[in-house]
Amino acid sequence: MIMRRRQPSFQGRPAGDQPQGPAKARPDKAAQAAMKEDRARDAALAMQEYEAEKRAVLANTERLRALRLASQAGGEAPKKTKKTAKKDS
What we know:
1 helix
């Protein structure tokens, strides 16, 4: 004999009356467009910050390489330059 699986019963409710979650509200077209613009703006800002950080790292690497090569060659180290401060956003 094949037995059928019983539906879980919720305490105090009949088996056919299962709880329904709230219906998900979909944003309208204007809200979707605004969210898309915000994401695009955030992406552009993140890319600018990434590229600025990359340029700073490359400049520092170049400076340190010049110092290392000068010290290895036994020559006088190039004049120290002021380190640029990071900009807090």
